[in-house]
């Protein structure tokens, strides 16, 4: 599980553009994920801009990579009775 230090340095945060590039998505996708609660952003105390904790994004990438390595689940259709 992700363990955070009590204080994070500015280098530990990514802007929305940097986070989008790291994850390979658009900044609009990150905004939507934030609104949906899928990936929460911190807010800069001075300007209110979204900031993402680098460790959280790297953990998300690791989870997605692990999920991609698993074979896909195959759903079989039920044959109609009769």
Task: Report on the architecture of this protein.
This protein has about 80 residues and is an alpha+beta fold. The chain has a single domain, classed as Orthogonal Bundle (Multidrug-efflux Transporter Regulator, Chain: A, Domain 2), CATH 1.10.1660. It has three helices and three strands. The protein has a three-stranded antiparallel sheet with strand order 1-3-2. Helix 1 packs across helix 2. The model has no long low-confidence stretch (mean pLDDT about 85).
What key attributes describe this structure?
elongated; single chain; 82 residues; Multidrug-efflux Transporter Regulator, Chain: A, Domain 2; 3 helices; alpha+beta
Question: What structural category do the secondary elements indicate?
Answer: alpha+beta
The quaternary state of the protein chains shown equals: single chain
Order of helices and strands: EHHEEH
What is the architecture at the second tier of CATH? Orthogonal Bundle
According to CATH, the fold-level topology is Multidrug-efflux Transporter Regulator, Chain: A, Domain 2
User: How many whole angstroms does the radius of gyration measure?
Assistant: 18 Å
Name the beta content range.
5-15%
Write down the domain tally.
1
What is the total tally of β strands? 3
The geometry reads as: elongated
CATH class: Mainly Alpha
CA(first)-CA(last) distance? 51 Å
- Order of strands side by side in the largest beta sheet? 1-3-2
Mean pLDDT: 84
Main sheet properties: 3 strands, antiparallel
Can you give the helix content as a percent range? 40-55%
């Amino acid at each position: 599980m992700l363990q955070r230090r009590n204080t994070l340095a500015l280098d530990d945060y990514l802007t929305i553009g940097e986070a989008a590039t790291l994850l390979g998505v658009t900044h609009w996708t990150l905004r939507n994920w934030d609104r949906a609660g899928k990936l929460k952003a911190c807010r800069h105390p001075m300007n209110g801009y979204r900031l993402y904790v680098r460790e959280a994004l790297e953990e998300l990438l690791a989870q997605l990579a692990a999920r991609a390595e698993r074979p896909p689940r195959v759903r079989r259709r039920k044959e109609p009775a009769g």
